[in-house]
C-alpha cells in the first residue's frame, strides 16, 4: 500500500556509468595490450582488417539493440543473413543491384514475419525467432542446394573490399547505419515509441501509442539490417556460403548489445555502445587468434563474457 | 509495492476458472499420436514398401532414439518453465569426449562424457536457478561454450578420435536386439524411468508446479532453485548419454554434429503438447512428437527431389505453427 | 480471554522515509474472525507483510503464540502455522486439486513413489470436511475461483495452520461462492483457528467477523467488537470523517463555487458491463462539469474509468464522445474497436490510478514522458520538432509547476507529486474534451495535492469535462458538480448540487444491508 516512494533513490548511477564506460576501458586496455605484445598489430592493414571483420556483427547488433530496447530478442538474424546470401547468386543474373534488392527484401520479410508473430500472434520473441532461425537457414540451404557459390562480380567485390579515402566501404555502411539508427532513436517519434514500449508497455498502450505496429517495425528493421550484413559478408568473401554465413551471429550481436550497456530488460538503448561492444568482442577474438590460441578458445571466452555481462547487468537492475 | 489495488483486471486464474474446452484440451494433448498415425498411413500409402520396410522403420527408430533422449530432458526443462539451447553442442561435446576417452576403456568412455555433461548441466542450472539469469541466455552461451570445448578437445576439428571396434562400448552400442538397435532400447528404458520420475515422484510434481506458477511453488515451500538446477543437470546428462550412443554407433566423435538438435528437441516437445510456458505436458506426447518429426523427415528424404535441407524448413515452420495453434487453442479453451 | 494467537505491538514501518505504519497494535485470538479494513494506502498490506515476515518492523514487535517472532519470509511463517490466502489464489492452476492440496508432501508408497490413489482419497476426505464438492483429479484452474479459494484454505489448514490471513478473498467471487467461504470460516472458528480477514466490503465485516480494526493512514483509528458499531460509523472511520460533524469546509483546494449550468454533453457511456466487476454503469459528462465517482475500493470506480478509456474490454456497453454523444440519444452506437488510442483520438484523456506500473516511463525524461501521447502532433515526417516539443513542455512544466532539475531529468527521479503532474501534462497537452482522473492525488504531498485540486477546478472552468475518482471523500464532495455512488459494480445513487455531502455518499455506500445494524 502507499508506497510509490519505495523506489530507491538513484543509487544506480555510478555503477551504470562504470558499466557504460567499461566497454571503452576494455577496448583501450586490449589495444594497449596488443600494441605492446602482439607483433604486426599496429599496422594499417591489420587495423583495417579488424574493422572489416567486425562489420557483420556490428550491423546485426544495431538491429538487435532496437529489438532488445523493446524488451524483445531476435535470434533469427544469422539465418536471415544466410537467406540473403543464398538469394544473391540466384538473382545476380539480373544484375548486382536487383540481386541485392531481392536479398534485402527477403530480410525484410523475415523481420516482418517475426514481428507479426511477436506483436499480433503474441508469441514469445525467443520462440518465434528461434523457429525462424531454423526455417530460415533451411530455406537458405534449400535455395542454394547447400552449396557455396563463388561470385566474380566486380561491383559486388567493390562493395566488399574497396575503400574510400582508406576507409573500407563496408565500414562506411556501418557508420551510416549507426548514424541513422542513432538519429531515429533520438530524434524521431518512432525512437521514442520504441523506448516507451520497452520501458513500460502498459503505460505506452495507455498513452495511445501504436504498440503492435511499432514492434513489427522494429523486427522488420532487424531483419533488414541482418540482410545488409548478409550481403556485405557475401561481397567480402566473393562467395555465397549459406551454410556458414551468420552462424551463431545472434549470440555475438546480443553480447555486443549487452556489453555496450543496453539492458536486456528494455527501455534504454546505446547505439554507439553497441558498436563498441561489437568491436570489443572482435578485438578479444583477434587477440586470442593472433596469439596462436585456437578459435575454440575464443568461443569459450565469448560465452563466459556474455554470461558475465548479463549477470552484472541483472545484479545492477535487481539492486 | 502497491499492494492491495483494485481487483486486477487480468486474472489468469479467473480466466481459467470458467469452463474448459475439452476439445481444445484434446487437440493439444492428444493430437500428436493421431497425426503420427495418419502420417504413417499416408507414408505407407504413397511410398509403400520403401517406407514401411523393416529396414527403413528401424532406421527411423534409431534416428529417433537419440532425439528422444534429448527431448526427454528438454521436456523436464520446458515443463519447469525453462529452455535448454545447449543440447546440440553438448551432444557433440559428449561424442568427442567419448571417443577421446575410449583409449582408457569402456567405463571411461562412458563416465567421462557423462561427468562433464553433468557438470555442464550443473553450471547451467546454477546460473538459471540461483543466479536467476534468463535460461535462454545461459544456455545460448552454453551452446557456444560446449561447441568451443568440443573443438578444443578435437584439436580444432583436425583430430578425429576413433573408437576401437573391439571395445565393449562399440559392441554394445552397435548390437541389435530383436532386430532393433541398442540405442533404441536404451532410449526406451530411459523413457520408462523418466515416466515414473515425472509422474510418480515429488521431484516430478515439483517440476510441474514450478512451471505452472513459480511464485506459488515458492510459497508452498518447494525447493525451487534446487529443482530448477536439477532439470538442467538431467537434460545435460541425457544429452550426454545420447552423445555416447551416437559415438558408439559411428565409432568416432565429431565436434560438428548436433547443430540444430536443440530446435528439433524443442519442436518435438512442443508438438507433443507440452506448453512452452511450462506447467503442463507429458512425456508420452514428447515420444509422439519425436516420432512424428522423424517420420516426416524420413518422408521428405523418400521424396527424391527434396534435399535434406527441407527438413530444417519443415522443423522450423512446424515449431511456429504448433506454437501458434497451441496458443490459439488454449486461449479459446480458457475463454 | 485466552492468549492471543498473534499480537502486534506498536509496530511502525517506513518505506523510503514515508511512514506506512505508525504504532499499530492488533490482537488476534484463536477462534475469532477479525476484520481488517481500510482504504487504499491505509497500511493493511504492510501490516500483513510484517506479520508474515515479508518485511520487518522498524519499531515494535510481532508475537506469535506469545513469542516474539521475526520470520524470514512467508515460507517460514507458514511452516510455523501462519498461512496467508491471497486475493490471487496462490496455487498452481494447471495441477489437479489433489496435487495442489498435497504438493511437496504427497503420500508415497513403499517404493517412494507417489500413490495417487491414496492422495486422491485423502484429498476427497479433506474436501468433504470443508463441504467442498469438486473432482479432486480435475485441474484446479478449471474450477470456479470460489472453490479454488476454498482449496487454498484447505491446503493451509492441512499444514496445521493456527492463523489464517485472508487478503480480500472475495474480491472476485460470485455471491454463491462467498456464502461457501463464509461457512468455511465458521468451521475454522470452531476449530479455534484465528482468522484475520482483510476486506473492503462492509457486508462481510458484519456477516463474518466478530471484531474489526480500521486502519487509516497507517494508524489504527478504530478497533472493537463488530456488534458495537454500525455501517455508517465504519464508513466514516475508514474515510476519516466524523458522522456527527461533517465539516462544512473541507481541507481541499477546490473552490466552493461550481457552475450549476454545465455545458453540452461531451461523454456518454452507457450500460458498461464487465462481469463480475461492472454491472451496467452509465455515465454522462458535460463540458465544464466535474463528475465524481464515489465508492469504496472495488466498487467499480477504476473499472468504470478503464472501460470508458478502452483500457479494459467490456462485455457490453458503449462509449460516445463529443458530437456523437449528443446526436445519438438512443441510437445504436457504431461497433468499433475501442482502445486507449481510439479514446485519445476522440478526445478522452486518462491519468491512471497506478502511476508506477501504468503511467510514467521511469527511464525516459520528463520531456519524453510529457510529449509521449502527443508525438503525432509534434513530428514532421517522423522527426520530432525540438522547438514545438520544447514549447509544449515548457508551457506545461510552468503551468503545472513541475519541479524537475531540467526537462531532461529522468521521471523516476521525481517525487510522486511531480510524476503525477507529468502524467497530467501528458494528457493535457492533447487538449482533450474529457479527462478521467483516477486517484489524482493519492500518495503525493500536500502542496502538490492542493495544486492539482486547484487545477481540476480551473480546467473545468475552461470547459473540460472531468471524471474524478477518489477514495478521499472530501475530494469528491468538494470537487464534483455531480457524484455517482458505486457499489458492487453498479451505480447506487446520484447526487447533485447541494445534495452532495459526505453524509449522503456514506449513506449510499452503506445502504443495501439495512437489515443489519
TrEMBL record, chain A:
A family per Pfam: BPD_transp_2
Domain of life where this protein originates: Bacteria
Membrane topology qualifier: Multi-pass membrane protein
Coiled coil segments of this chain: none
Compartments, as annotated in UniProt: Cell membrane
Signal sequence residues: none
Transmembrane spans: 21-41, 47-68, 75-94, 100-119, 126-144, 164-185, 214-232, 244-264, 271-290
CDD domains according to UniProt: TM_PBP1_transp_AraH_like (cd06579)
Swiss-Prot/TrEMBL keywords: Cell membrane, Membrane, Transmembrane, Transmembrane helix
InterPro entries: ABC_transp_permease
Protein name: Sugar ABC transporter permease
The organism's taxonomic lineage, starting at the top: Bacteria, Bacillati, Actinomycetota, Actinomycetes, Micromonosporales
Gene: rbsC_2
UniProtKB/TrEMBL annotation, chain B:
Annotated transmembrane regions: 30-48, 60-79, 108-127, 133-154, 175-198, 229-248, 269-296, 308-325
InterPro entries listed in its UniProt record: ABC_transp_permease
Alphabetized UniProt keyword annotations: Cell membrane, Membrane, Transmembrane, Transmembrane helix
Name of a matching Pfam family: BPD_transp_2
Coiled-coil positions: none
Compartments where located: Cell membrane
Membrane topology: Multi-pass membrane protein
Entry annotated with the keyword tRNA processing: no
PANTHER family found in the cross-reference section: ABC TRANSPORTER PERMEASE PROTEIN YPHD-RELATED-RELATED, INNER MEMBRANE ABC TRANSPORTER PERMEASE PROTEIN YJFF
Annotated protein name in UniProt: Sugar ABC transporter permease
Organism: Phytohabitans aurantiacus
TrEMBL record, chain C:
Keywords: ATP-binding, Nucleotide-binding, Repeat, Transport
Name recorded for this polypeptide: Sugar ABC transporter ATP-binding protein
Domain ABC transporter: 6-242, 261-513
Origin species: Phytohabitans aurantiacus
SMART domains from the UniProt entry: AAA (SM00382)
InterPro entries: AAA+_ATPase (IPR003593), ABC_carbohydrate_import_ATPase (IPR050107), ABC_transporter-like_ATP-bd (IPR003439), ABC_transporter-like_CS (IPR017871), P-loop_NTPase (IPR027417)
GO molecular function, one term: ATP binding
Superkingdom per UniProt: Bacteria
Gene3D superfamilies in the cross-refs: P-loop containing nucleotide triphosphate hydrolases
Amino acid at each position: 500500500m502507499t508506497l510509490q516512494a519505495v523506489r530507491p533513490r538513484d543509487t544506480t548511477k555510478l555503477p551504470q556509468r562504470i558499466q557504460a564506460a567499461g566497454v571503452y576501458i576494455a577496448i583501450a586496455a586490449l589495444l594497449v595490450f596488443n600494441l605492446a605484445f602482439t607483433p604486426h598489430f599496429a599496422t594499417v592493414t591489420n587495423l583495417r582488417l579488424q574493422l572489416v571483420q567486425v562489420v557483420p556483427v556490428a550491423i546485426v547488433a544495431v538491429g538487435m539493440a532496437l529489438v532488445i530496447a523493446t524488451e524483445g530478442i531476435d535470434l533469427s538474424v544469422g539465418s536471415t543473413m544466410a537467406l540473403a546470401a543464398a538469394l544473391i547468386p540466384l538473382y545476380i543474373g539480373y544484375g548486382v543491384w536487383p540481386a541485392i534488392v531481392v536479398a534485402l527484401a527477403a530480410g525484410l520479410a523475415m523481420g516482418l514475419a517475426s514481428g507479426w508473430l511477436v506483436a499480433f500472434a503474441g508469441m514469445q520473441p525467443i520462440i518465434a525467432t528461434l523457429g525462424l532461425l531454423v526455417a530460415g537457414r533451411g530455406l537458405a540451404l534449400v535455395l542454394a542446394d547447400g552449396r557455396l557459390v563463388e561470385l566474380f562480380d566486380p561491383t559486388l567485390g567493390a562493395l566488399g573490399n574497396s575503400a574510400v579515402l582508406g576507409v573500407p566501404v563496408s565500414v562506411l555502411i556501418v557508420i551510416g547505419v549507426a548514424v541513422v539508427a542513432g538519429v531515429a532513436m533520438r530524434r524521431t517519434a518512432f525512437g521514442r515509441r520504441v523506448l516507451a514500449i520497452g520501458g513500460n508497455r502498459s503505460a505506452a498502450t495507455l498513452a495511445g501509442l501504436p504498440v503492435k505496429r511499432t514492434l513489427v517495425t522494429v523486427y522488420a528493421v532487424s531483419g533488414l539490417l541482418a540482410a545488409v550484413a548478409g550481403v556485405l559478408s557475401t561481397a567480402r568473401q566473393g562467395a555465397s556460403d549459406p551454410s556458414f554465413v551468420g552462424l551463431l551471429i545472434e549470440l555475438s550481436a546480443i553480447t555486443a548489445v549487452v556489453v555496450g550497456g543496453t539492458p536486456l530488460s528494455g527501455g534504454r538503448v546505446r547505439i554507439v555502445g553497441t558498436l563498441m561492444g561489437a568491436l570489443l568482442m572482435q578485438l578479444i577474438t583477434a587477440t586470442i587468434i593472433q596469439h596462436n590460441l585456437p578459435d575454440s578458445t575464443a568461443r569459450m571466452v565469448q560465452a563466459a563474457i556474455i554470461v558475465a555481462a548479463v549477470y552484472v547487468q541483472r545484479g545492477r537492475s535487481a539492486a | 509495492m502497491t499492494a492491495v489495488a483494485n481487483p486486477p483486471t487480468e486474472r489468469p486464474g479467473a480466466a481459467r476458472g470458467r469452463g474448459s474446452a475439452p476439445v481444445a484440451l484434446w487437440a493439444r494433448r492428444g493430437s500428436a499420436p493421431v497425426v503420427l498415425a495418419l502420417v504413417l498411413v499416408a507414408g505407407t500409402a504413397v511410398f509403400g514398401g520403401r517406407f514401411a520396410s523393416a529396414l527403413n522403420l528401424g532406421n527411423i527408430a534409431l534416428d529417433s532414439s537419440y532425439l528422444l533422449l534429448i527431448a526427454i530432458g528438454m521436456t523436464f526443462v520446458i515443463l519447469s518453465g525453462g529452455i535448454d539451447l545447449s543440447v546440440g553442442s553438448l551432444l557433440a561435446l559428449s561424442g568427442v569426449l567419448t571417443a577421446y576417452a575410449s583409449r582408457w576403456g569402456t567405463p571411461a568412455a562412458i563416465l567421462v562424457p557423462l561427468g562433464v555433461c553433468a557438470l555442464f548441466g550443473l553450471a547451467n542450472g546454477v546460473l538459471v536457478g540461483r543466479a536467476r539469469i534468463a535460461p535462454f541466455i545461459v544456455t545460448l552461451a552454453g551452446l557456444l561454450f560446449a561447441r568451443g570445448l568440443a573443438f578444443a578437445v578435437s584439436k580444432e576439428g583436425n583430430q578425429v578420435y576413433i573408437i576401437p571396434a573391439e571395445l565393449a562400448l562399440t559392441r554394445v552400442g552397435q548390437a541389435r536386439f530383436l532386430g532393433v538397435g541398442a540405442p533404441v532400447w536404451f532410449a526406451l528404458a530411459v523413457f520408462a524411468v523418466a515416466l515414473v520420475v515425472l509422474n510418480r515422484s515429488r521431484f516430478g510434481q515439483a517440476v510441474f508446479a514450478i512451471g505452472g506458477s513459480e511464485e506459488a511453488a515458492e510459497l508452498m515451500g518447494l525447493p525451487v532453485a534446487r529443482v530448477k538446477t536439477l532439470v538442467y543437470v538431467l537434460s545435460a546428462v541425457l544429452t550426454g548419454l545420447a552423445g555416447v550412443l551416437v559415438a558408439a554407433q559411428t565409432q568416432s566423435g565429431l565436434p560438428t554434429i548436433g547443430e540444430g538438435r536443440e530446435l528439433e528437441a524443442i519442436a518435438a516437445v512442443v508438438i507433443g503438447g507440452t506448453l512452452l510456458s511450462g506447467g503442463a505436458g507429458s512425456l508420452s506426447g514428447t515420444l509422439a512428437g519425436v516420432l512424428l518429426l522423424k517420420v516426416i523427415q524420413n518422408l521428405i528424404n523418400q521424396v527424391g527431389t527434396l534435399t535434406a535441407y527441407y527438413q530444417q524448413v519443415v522443423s522450423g515452420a512446424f515449431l511456429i505453427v504448433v506454437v501458434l495453434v497451441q496458443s490459439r487453442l488454449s486461449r479459446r479453451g480458457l475463454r | 480471554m485466552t492468549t492471543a494467537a498473534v499480537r502486534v505491538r506498536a509496530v511502525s514501518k517506513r518505506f523510503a522515509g514515508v511512514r506506512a505504519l505508525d504504532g499499530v497494535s492488533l490482537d488476534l485470538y484463536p477462534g475469532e474472525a477479525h476484520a481488517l479494513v481500510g482504504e487504499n494506502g491505509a497500511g493493511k498490506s504492510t501490516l500483513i507483510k510484517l506479520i508474515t515476515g515479508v518485511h520487518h518492523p522498524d519499531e515494535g514487535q510481532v508475537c506469535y503464540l506469545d513469542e516474539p517472532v521475526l520470520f524470514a519470509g512467508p515460507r517460514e511463517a507458514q511452516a510455523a502455522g501462519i498461512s496467508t490466502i491471497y486475493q490471487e489464489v496462490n496455487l498452481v492452476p494447471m495441477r489437479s486439486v489433489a496435487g495442489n492440496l498435497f504438493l511437496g508432501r504427497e503420500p508415497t508408497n513403499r517404493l517412494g513413489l507417489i500413490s495417487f490413489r491414496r492422495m486422491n482419497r485423502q484429498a476427497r476426505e479433506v474436501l468433504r470436511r470443508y463441504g467442498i464438492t469438486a473432482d479432486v483429479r480435475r485441474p484446479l484452474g478449471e474450477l470456479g475461483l470460489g472453490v479454488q479459494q476454498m482449496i487454498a484454505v484447505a491446503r493451509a489448514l492441512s499444514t496445521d495452520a493456527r492463523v489464517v490471513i485472508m487478503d480480500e478473498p472475495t474480491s472476485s467471487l460470485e455471491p454463491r461462492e462467498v456464502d461457501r467461504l463464509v461457512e468455511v470460516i465458521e468451521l475454522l472458528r470452531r476449530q479455534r483457528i484465528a482468522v484475520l480477514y482483510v476486506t473492503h466490503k462492509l457486508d462481510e465485516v458484519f456477516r463474518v467477523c466478530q471484531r474489526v480494526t480500521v486502519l487509516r493512514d497507517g494508524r489504527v483509528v478504530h478497533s472493537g467488537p463488530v456488534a458495537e458499531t454500525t455501517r455508517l460509523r465504519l464508513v466514516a472511520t475508514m474515510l476519516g470523517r466524523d458522522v456527527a460533524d461533517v465539516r462544512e469546509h473541507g481541507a481541499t483546494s477546490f473552490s466552493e463555487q461550481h457552475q450549476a449550468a454545465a455545458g453540452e454533453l461531451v461523454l456518454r457511456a452507457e450500460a458498461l458491463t464487465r462481469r463480475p466487476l461492472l454491472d451496467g454503469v452509465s455515465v454522462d459528462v458535460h463540458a465544464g462539469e466535474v463528475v465524481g465517482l464515489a465508492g469504496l475500493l472495488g466498487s467499480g470506480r477504476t473499472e468504470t474509468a478503464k472501460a470508458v478509456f478502452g483500457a479494459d474490454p467490456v462485455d457490453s456497453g458503449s462509449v460516445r464522445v463529443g458530437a456523437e454523444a449528443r446526436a445519438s440519444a438512443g441510437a445504436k452506437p457504431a461497433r468499433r474497436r475501442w482502445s486507449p488510442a481510439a479514446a485519445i483520438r476522440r478526445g478522452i484523456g486518462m491519468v491512471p490510478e497506478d502511476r508506477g506500473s501504468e503511467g510514467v516511463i521511469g527511464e525516459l525524461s520528463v520531456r519524453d514522458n510529457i510529449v509521449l501521447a502527443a508525438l503525432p502532433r509534434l513530428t514532421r515526417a517522423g522527426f520530432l520538432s525540438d522547438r514545438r516539443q520544447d514549447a509544449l513542455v515548457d508551457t506545461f512544466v510552468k503551468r503545472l509547476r513541475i519541479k524537475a532539475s531540467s526537462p531532461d531529468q529522468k521521471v523516476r527521479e521525481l517525487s510522486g507529486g511531480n510524476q503525477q503532474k507529468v502524467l497530467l501534462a501528458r494528457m493535457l497537452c492533447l487538449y482533450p474534451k474529457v479527462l478521467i482522473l483516477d486517484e489524482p492525488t493519492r500518495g503525493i504531498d500536500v502542496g502538490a495535492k492542493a495544486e492539482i485540486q486547484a487545477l481540476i477546478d480551473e480546467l473545468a472552468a475552461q470547459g473540460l469535462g472531468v471524471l474524478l475518482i477518489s477514495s478521499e471523500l472530501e475530494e469528491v464532495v468538494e470537487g464534483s458538480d455531480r457524484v455517482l455512488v458505486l457499489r458492487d459494480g453498479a451505480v447506487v445513487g446520484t447526487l447533485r448540487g447541494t445534495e452532495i455531502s459526505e453524509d449522503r455518499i456514506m449513506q449510499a455506500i452503506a445502504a443495501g444491508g439495512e437489515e443489519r445494524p
